[in-house]
Predict the structure.
Amino acid sequence: MSYKSVSQLLVKWKQGDEEALRALVPLVCAELRRLAHYYLQGENPGHTLESTALVHEAYLRLAERSPLQLQNRAHFFAVASHLMRQILVDYARHRHSAKRGGGCKLTLDEAVFLSRGRDLDLVALDGTLNELSRLDTQQRKIVELRFFCGLSIAETAGILSISPATVKRDWATARVWLHREMSRSPQ
Amino acid sequence: MMTPERWNQVKCVLQEALELAPDQRPAFLDRACSTDHSLRREVESFSLPVTRSAPVS
């Protein structure tokens, strides 16, 4: 892929060109999928996906070839966190079908999610995130950045241009909401 | 189905409740939800830990 074109597309997107985003997503997605494949090849029998490391490395690989400004880095994470969600959910679905209903629970980087050490049904999470997005787009973005990109409260606040206190409150209520909805999901 | 407006209302109560100690939550919910029983039920459906404080004698 052309890193120069990614950089140019980021600039165009920043200027409000929605077409640039449409062109950008497949490029970044391809890189993320390549990285995801690399990581999943070396995965442990426990299927622990290092989602944080995955996206950070994707960012580093893009940034090292065409240095991005902070605002572009923010844009990158906004795209990457959404892509990571799609990639991981696709992966979980694939595993689910491969096992013919044998479940698709993964153990994710517990530092960034709801409760420590719990297996997580990513397909169910994806559905509940879609519902959360309908109710509160900002909360959906916060969950994607915190969970799928592993960003801190402060980093998430910087990217969304809102206060850390707002991120903290929205993250807390998003967690209890997701927890309630996923407890209701049929197993 | 919950509307974005209703979620915003529930969220505001939840945010405050989450910042309180469990023994302070019931009294807070009494005040915050007042006579809006459906709001109270909605907030309680999130199963936040609550403990009833000992009655003041």
Helices of chain A lie at 3-14, 18-41, 51-65, 70-98, 122-135, 137-148, 153-160, 164-184.
